[in-house]
Amino acid sequence: MNGLGRFLVVLGIVLVVLGLAMPWLGKLGLGRLPGDILVERENFTFYFPIATSLLISLVLSLLLWLLGR
Questions:
Q1: Helix ranges, 1-69 (H)
Q2: Phi-psi region of 20 (alpha: psi -120 to 50; beta: other; left: phi over 0)
Q3: How far from chain centre, in Å, is Cα 47?
C-alpha cells in the first residue's frame, strides 16, 4: 500500500501543477496542433485533440520511465 499512496500523492501534485500551468500551455499552442480534429457546424462543435494527446502521452511516458529508474 505504501507504493500506491506515494503514486497517488505524486499524481495529485502533477495534476495541481498542470492545472496551474494551463494558461501558459494555451499560449504555447497546446490543443491547436496540426493533427487535432476540429469540426464546427452551425449548432455543433466537435474537437478531438489527437496530436496533443499523443504529445502528452509521450511526455508522461518519458517522465514515468525516468521516475521508475
A1: 2-27, 50-68
A2: alpha
A3: 15
Distances 14 to 11, 27, 38, 44, 52 between C-alpha atoms, Å: 5, 20, 28, 33, 18
C-alpha cell at 65: 520511465
49: buried, middle or exposed (CB in 10 Å: 19+, 13-18, 0-12)? middle
Instruction: Please write the tens of the pLDDT for every residue from 18-64.
Output: 889 888 877 877 778 899 999 999 999 999 999 989 998 999 899 88
Strands (E), the chain: 37-40, 45-48
Q: What is the pTM of this model?
A: 0.62
Looking at residue 43, the DSSP 8-state letter turns out to be S
Taken in order 9, 13, 14, 15, is the CA torsion positive or negative?
positive
Q: Domain spans of the chain? A: 1-28, 31-69
